[in-house]
């Protein structure tokens, strides 16, 4: 089955929003050419930052230093060039292999995530695989540290091929290259669909594959994984819903694990797959008490089949890295009765997992989502194009709740899912969740 991808909407740089979080669109701040960057940063902070900050000594620092030292971890200062790169990346334009990773001593390089439609994804490499060596031009090198792996991949140029060998005996060959990220895959127990580059048009097209079939799903159950709220995620999500509706799925699992958020607009578009366009899906409350209300936007709902049907059972998978826009979407589903807390399944990392990756159950947020209920807005300095991203508001669900600093937890009634040894944990954790959901 092939369904053409919706046309991309134009995104103005001035209205772009950044990072793994929920953001609003901020207005441009016009400034004269002789207005120093530091003075401009101070004025924007004083006017828009959600907390009061003393900027009297700002001239003792660079803009980046001051923001890093005095503002929260979500605020940042960008040069025009840096900001352009971020906007390009968030639109889906990427380069490299498409993996994030960490090192597990005596185990290898743990693949934390694989970007859909990336060279790694196309090769079959998946999150949870553990890379132990790489073969380049017939020579195989093993990895005993994170730096060895980083040096290996950094030395490769665009077009160079490498075969990554995993602890399970897998061999995954790919080339370092430019690609367009996609953000949604869907599956049943018989087939799966991904947005892949079409060889003729060069654009993304929803393509039926057998790469991500979930055999544990019962008949009539569907699965949608949403990795981030960027790029064409909204149109992709609507098309995935349409596919599962065409198969008469009476239940859908929405996987938001490790989804740290993205654009608020994408959250608004995706919300329209569950609630009527125009319904309140989020409120932002700014310093001083002003509020902005964000509504579901159905621009990607081309037919009723793009909306999850009222009698469809919906379940959500989440973990300690499920943050911001993801938590806002959960808020929409809960506030409008699409799900109850008991329909949310949260990763509960085993002692072995915690020991291997380090930290503690608390730091890894076992049995909880991240708890990011604040919003960032970008402000652009005229003439230079420099951008200051600030935390500007606290966000509230449609029912008035705020999960900032708390998240959704098992104490709310959500269910804990055992998340085992990380180098083979993703598939096993998903199986555990499916067993809990369907019995």
* Low-confidence runs of at least 5 consecutive residues: 1-34
What is the quaternary state of this protein? single chain
Q: Name the structural class.
A: alpha+beta
Shape: globular
Number of DSSP strand runs = 23
The order of strands across the largest sheet is 1-14-13-12-15-16-19-20-23
What would you report as the Rg, rounded to the nearest angstrom? 22 Å
How can the largest sheet be summarized? Answer: 9 strands, mixed
Estimate the mean pLDDT confidence.
90
Separation of the first and last Cα atoms: 31 Å
State the helix count.
10
Q: Give the amount of beta strand, in percent.
A: 25-35%
The helix content, as a percent range, equals: 10-25%
List the helices and strands and how they pair.
Elements: E1 2-4, E2 22-23, H1 37-48, H2 63-70, E3 76-78, H3 80-90, E4 93-96, E5 99-104, E6 108-114, H4 119-123, E7 130-136, E8 139-142, H5 146-155, E9 161-166, E10 171-175, E11 177-180, E12 184-187, E13 192-197, E14 204-209, E15 221-226, H6 233-246, E16 251-255, H7 264-271, E17 280-286, E18 291-295, E19 313-318, H8 325-335, E20 344-349, H9 351-357, E21 374-380, E22 387-396, E23 415-419, H10 425-438
Parallel strand pairs: 2-21, 15-16, 16-19, 19-20, 20-23
Antiparallel strand pairs: 1-14, 3-22, 4-11, 5-6, 6-7, 7-8, 7-9, 9-10, 12-13, 12-15, 13-14, 17-18, 17-22, 21-22
Helix pairs in contact: 6-7, 7-8
